[in-house]
Amino acid sequence: MPSPTLTRRRFAALGLAAPAVWGLADVARALPRVPLVIASGVAVGDAPARSRAAYEAAIRDGADILAVDFAPCKDGTLVAAGDRELSTFTDVATRAPFSDRRQTQFVDGKERAGWFAEAFTLPELKSLTLAGAPPPKRRGPQAEPAAILTFDEVVAIARAGSTRTARVIGIQAGMVRPAYFASLDLAVEPRLAAAIHAAGYDYAAAAMTVASADEAALRTVGGLTRARRILRLDADGQGPSGADLGRLTAIRAVAEAIAVPPTALVDLATPKTLPATELVARAHAAGLAVQAWAPAAPAFPPPPLRPGDARRVLAAVYAAGADALAAEPVALAVRARADAIPAARDQG
Description:
Elements: H1 4-15, H2 27-30, E1 36-39, H3 52-60, E2 65-72, E3 78-80, E4 103-107, E5 110-114, H4 122-126, H5 136-139, H6 151-165, E6 170-175, H7 178-183, H8 188-199, E7 208-212, H9 215-222, E8 228-232, H10 245-251, E9 257-260, H11 279-285, E10 289-293, H12 310-319, E11 324-326, H13 330-340
Parallel strand pairs: 1-2, 1-11, 2-6, 6-7, 7-8, 8-9, 9-10, 10-11
Antiparallel strand pairs: 2-3, 4-5
C-alpha cells in the first residue's frame, strides 16, 4: 500500500497542482526548496529535437520543466517551433508538394530563404518529419513518426510525465517573434493565453510560465493570463551582467523571472574557483527569480575551460543561487544540482 506522502505527491502530480515554482511578490519567501532543471528539448539518441520522444526522455532523466517555443501556423494553431523556418528542423525541403512554398523574407534586416511555418496549415505541418528522426525501417512497426507537436500535445506529455514520475512537470512556453506574427494578424499572445486558459493553467502557481525576449509581448500576455512570465536577457552591456537594481526593478513590472547565460551568474574568468556574481542577490532583491541557460556543447563551457569542466561550472551556477538551470544533457544538470545542493539528490 503506498505511503500517505507518496499518495499526496501523486495526487499533486495528477492534478498538476504545482507549488509556487518561482517567487511572486517576495522571492526571498517563495523560492523552491531546491532549484529546478529545465529541458530545452534537444535531440536524445534517435529522438530528434522537439519531439515527443525527446521530451519524454528528458522527463525520465529528471527534468522538472519542458521549455518549448511556440509559433502559430497558417490556421492559428500553436506549434512547437524554435525557428519559423521549417527546413532547419524538418524534412520540408525534400517534400515535392511543398516546393512552391519556398520564399525569401527579410529576417532581422537580412534576406532569408526557406519554408516558413505561417504558410502551412496544421495538417500540412503534421505531414512533415522532424530532422534527425530515424528512417521508417528503423522505427519498428509500432513507432510513432517524429512529427511537430502542438501546444496541447506538449501539455499532454507533461501531464503524462507527472503521472508516471509522481512529480509535477511544468511547461515554459516561449513566444517566437511575437511582433512579426502580430503584423500578420496571427498574434501569439492571445492564442497562447487562450491555450493556457483551456488547459487549466491560468493561475500564478500553475506549472506554466511564458517566456520571451520581447518586453512588450510579456506585458501584453500579462494582461491576458495569470501565468508567470520570464524575460530572456543577454549578457552584453545592456543585459544582466551590467544590470543595476533599478533596471531589475523595472523588469519586475513585466516579468517574475529573468533568464540569463551562466556567465552572468559565475565569473568564468576565474576558472579555479568560479566565484558568483552579484546578479542573483540583486534580482532577488528586486523580486525576480533567476534562470540560467547554458549553450549546447561545444560552445559551453567556453575557453579556458574544457568540456570536462561542464558539470563543475553548472554546479557553480546552482551554488550561485540560480532558481532554475537549462542545460543539456538533462542528466548532467541533475548531477550538477546534486553536487551543489545535497538536498536535491532526493529529487527526480
